[in-house]
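Progress against Task 2.4 (sequence-to-structure conversion) is shown through the following example record, which the project officer requested during the mid-term review.
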Amino acid sequence: MDDKTDIGKLVSRYIYYTWISKAKSQRDFASTHDIEEATVRRIKNVALGTSNVEYNMTVKTLHKICNKRGISLQDFFRMVEEFSKGAR
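Structure tokens generated for the chain above:
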């Protein structure tokens, strides 16, 4: 798979560019979404391509983030699909 079709990278890019990069801080995003700050760093590193380590986010983590944002997983993936049309 190339970078634009790798769902793990695409999901990380969406979360980073849409939410994390606009948060007060990585720590604040982690705290308000009930996830570890290390998870936020992994998402950021994958999104920016600054890490060669693969990160496959768990459905549980994604569910926590979506719940805190008040969206369903189905809506999340619709938004990711729209984002992918203009993927960075």
